[in-house]
Amino acid sequence: MAFPKKKLQGLVAATITPMTENGLDQVVIHVGALSLKESQELAQHAAEIGADGIAVIAPFFLKPWTKDILINFLKEVAAAAPALPFYYYHIPALTGVKIRAEELLDGIQDKIPTFQGLKFSDTDLLDFGQCVDQNRQQQFAFLFGVDEQLLSALVMGATGAVGSTYNYLGKKTNQMLEAFERKDLSLALNYQFCIQRFINFVVKLGFGVSQTKAIMTLVSGIPMGPPRLPLQKASREFTDSAEAKLKSLDFLSFTDLKDGSLEASS
To answer: Which positions are annotated as active-site residues?
Structure first.
């Protein structure tokens, strides 16, 4: 699932789904769980239904505290689907597993031959940069997961992106990717700043899974339904504020909206 740099993709979180004009190109299913047995069963199921790969986060109740312990866990999950490419989902802010991705990647294919790359969801760009720099020969997929910092990661060598905001900020993100491909860094930066304006706005309101579902409903017109407990439904105040900001930044394409431009974003 390593994306060529000429075709960088914006992806959806949880199930990694690169998109082409004709639909889904590849489906990589996340099979991480607190239980090793459950992860193995999910990996086997992913293989049975024809998935193109599997991804796994670190277990986060009884946490692995060293690189070797984490790799041993990942190895057992990968072995349950030995024909599928395997990806590690690095998200220490949620798992609490602080093992640096750079350290984990060192020699990982010796233990997990199907290892193909990682989703890096952390703001430590030093760690990410060293992942890329020290693994140039392996041609791993380096998928970045902090949407508001994607441009920085592209400069450092990210080969793709996985993120929740691409469900509704995908157009601006694709424009940024296209500008980056043309080496128009000034325009790419303007697009990144425009994306950041919205993310910064909703973060200050209180932003999470529930709010993401509400915004997806606003942009797509498809009711996404409430979140699962213990999460609570986004408030009407949040939804109204987010909608107004989306319109002011020209992120909504409803027919009653006037065409905007990047320069008009504020």
So the answer is: 89, 119
